[in-house]
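debug: dumping io for the single-chain case to check the tokenizer round-trip. Nothing else runs in this session.
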Amino acid sequence: MKPALRNLLLRSNRYLGAALVEADLVTLPNLEAATERLLQLVAAGNARQSNVLGVLAYEMKVLREEDVLQHLADEHGAGLVDLRDVELAEDLKQHLDPEACWATWTLPFDREEGFNSVASACFLSSAARTYWEKHLDGPIIWYGATIESIADQLEKLTAARAAAMPVPAAAPPAA
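debug: decoded output
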């Protein structure tokens, strides 16, 4: 991962963790332990697991992802979306930076009449939201989404791009 995106990942997760503590969804000692684990995952280069929410919910089991999504809907008025049933808009498929999506656990999935529909497992992170507000043209309609549904869409996008890449021609045999 590029250094700038690695910094974005760390900053997004730091702000997400702080927001989770502020919302009383997790304790500070649990966040500190999750942050240590996150740093190990980032160092190992495992994008799919590099998320403090995932560490807290699925490794440490001190938080339920459903509680975070409910908080998003109740306290922030964000919609909720299951990305497994969503087909990404063609222009997004071509122009999205999957590494930025992994770094922020956020995925723009549609653009209609100048509005961007964006799903995020990191909505509570002001760093993640700010990144996308700067990089998308037009207003954003935010949705909460599960880590799994975002990861599945990003893996599907990456696989589709890899399949569409031309295969390099083989070198002619030596004479």
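debug: round-trip ok. Residues 3-162 form one domain.
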